[in-house]
Amino acid sequence: MFIKKRFVTLVLFVCVVLTSCGGRATEVPTLDANVIMTDAVNTFIANINQTQTAQALLATATASSTITSSPVSLVTATPPPTWTQAPIFNPVLPTIFKSPTATGTQYTPTANPALLASGCNNLRLILDVNVPAGSVVRPGESFTKTWKVENSGTCDWVYLYRLVFVSGDRMDGEPSGLGKVIVPGKWTQLSVSLTAPKKAGTYIGYWRFGTQTGSPFGSTLTVSIVVGSPTDTPQPTSTPVPPTSTNTPVTPSSYP
After folding, report:
1. Which among 27, 42, 111, 148 is least buried, having the fewest CB atoms inside 10 angstroms?
2. pLDDT digits (tens, 9 = 90+) for 113-141
């Protein structure tokens, strides 16, 4: 439709030009109508070609700018099978309460040896030499208790140092003087002669070492005994044995 409209307009334009030229006084060379028609047709064809070329270029540009995406197949993921946990039987057991039981050797607190000093004097108990705690003795029995000790002070123990009774059961103990010199860092043995009471029971006496003036220092020395009740030794008893009679056969005498 657009091409026909342009062709008609071109033909009218040519006719107008020819009409205006006919009215001029100046003689214009006569133009051949076939030539004019031929030029018009060529011009028309050229316009058509240009229009078609422009439309082709436009269509090519439009086609190139269009992005055609290839169809993508959507793969539907199959969900994994649902795992069902089997019921777990968890039995409830009764709780048994056990009271704590003390085991092992119970700790016995001891005094700090440094606090037992008296001035430069101090004593450390090493061990009981004899008559351990709980020893059983007879009523009224005489015995000697001995301890092994160390001079843990800073001055010497001299001749008149001796054991001092502190408390408990004295058991007729009468200690004597040390009678020698013990320098710091050395050990010695201290002894006291005792007599067990005559009554049965447990008896404990506490002693400490002291200076010549009787000032005690150092660890406490303990003697503990158990007096047993006297037992009478049964005397053997004799059981009288009845006499055994023996029958003596009698021989009959013959009379004349």
Report:
1. 27
2. 778 899 999 999 999 999 999 999 999 99
Whole-structure pTM over 0.70, yes or no? no
Cβ contact 158:177 at 8 Å: no
Which residue's entry shows tokens 């190139």?
Answer: 64
For residue 143, give the 3-state DSSP assignment.
Answer: strand
Written as six digits, the tokens of 157 are 């123990």
Q: How far apart are CA 99 and CA 78, in angstroms?
A: 60
180 within 8 A of 156, measured Cβ to Cβ: no
Per-residue exposure over 40-55, b if at least 16 CB sit within 10 Å of its own CB, e if not = eeeeeeeeeeeeeeee
For residue 234 the two structure tokens come to: 């049964």
Rounded to an integer, the average pLDDT of 23-28 is 47
C-alpha–C-alpha distance, residues 109 and 19, integer Å: 148
Strand locations in 160-210 (E): 162-168, 187-195, 201-210
User: Cβ(185)–Cβ(127) under 8 Å?
Assistant: no
Report the candidate in 248, 242, 184 with the shortest Cα–Cα distance to residue 217: 184
**Cα distance between the two ends of the chain:** 213
Q: What is the residue-wise DSSP string for 9-34?
A: HHHHHHHHHHHHHHT-SS--PPPPHH
